[in-house]
Amino acid sequence: MGRRKIEMTMVKDGSSRQVTFSKRRNGVFKKANELATLCGAEVAVVAFSPGGKPFSFGQPSVGVVSDRFLHRDKRKPNHGKNVVGSSKDGAKVSDLTQQLNELLKQLHAEKKRGEMLEKEKEKSGFKAPIINKLGLQELIELKGSLERLREDIKARVSEMEASSSLLLLAKKPVYESGRPVAKKVPNSYS
C-alpha cells in the first residue's frame, strides 16, 4: 500500500494543527541539518508555532547566519569555512554534529527496543495483561496459552495426587479382620 498525497490545506482542528506543526518542524530542522552537514552550507530556519512560540535552528547558529544575510554586501562569503574561527573549528563542529546525529539514531533505536521489550514483558509472565487493549489475534493467543497452562496444571495435580496416594498406601499398615498384619518382606536369599 503506497503513500497517498496529502492536500496542502490548513488543518482546522487546533490540537491537530499543533501536532502537525511539531512533526513538520522537526522534519524541516532535520533537513536543514542534513543540508548543512552534507554541503557545508550555513543554514538558518525560524518558525513560529500556531500559538506564537518561536523555534529556530541554525548551523553554525541562527544569529551568525542572519547577520550574514542582513549584511551580505559588507562581508565576504567564507566558502564553507565556519564563522566560529578556523577551518579546524568548522571540522570540529561538523564532527560534533555527526556524533549528535549518530547518538540521536541510537536513542531512537533504543526507544523502539524498549517499547518492544515492554510489549514482550506484558505478553509473558503472570501479570494480567490489560485485556481491553488487546486485539482479536492477541486475545486468541492468550486464550490458547491459558488453556495449555490449565491442562499442564491438571496433569501436574494428577501426578502429585497419584504419588501422594502411593506414599500414603506405603505408610499405612494393612488390616485383616480388624488387626494389623505385618508386611511380608521379600526374601532375597531364596
TrEMBL record:
<dbReference type="GO" id="GO:0000981">
    <property type="term" value="F:DNA-binding transcription factor activity, RNA polymerase II-specific"/>
</dbReference>
<feature type="coiled-coil region">
    <location>
        <begin position="93"/>
        <end position="156"/>
    </location>
</feature>
<dbReference type="GO" id="GO:0046983">
    <property type="term" value="F:protein dimerization activity"/>
</dbReference>
<dbReference type="InterPro" id="IPR002100">
    <property type="entry name" value="TF_MADSbox"/>
</dbReference>
<protein>
    <recommendedName>
        <fullName>MADS-box domain-containing protein</fullName>
    </recommendedName>
</protein>
<feature type="domain" description="MADS-box">
    <location>
        <begin position="1"/>
        <end position="61"/>
    </location>
</feature>
<dbReference type="GO" id="GO:0005634">
    <property type="term" value="C:nucleus"/>
</dbReference>
<keyword id="KW-0804">Transcription</keyword>
<dbReference type="GO" id="GO:0000978">
    <property type="term" value="F:RNA polymerase II cis-regulatory region sequence-specific DNA binding"/>
</dbReference>
<keyword id="KW-0539">Nucleus</keyword>
<keyword id="KW-0238">DNA-binding</keyword>
<keyword id="KW-0805">Transcription regulation</keyword>
<dbReference type="Pfam" id="PF00319">
    <property type="entry name" value="SRF-TF"/>
</dbReference>
<keyword id="KW-0175">Coiled coil</keyword>
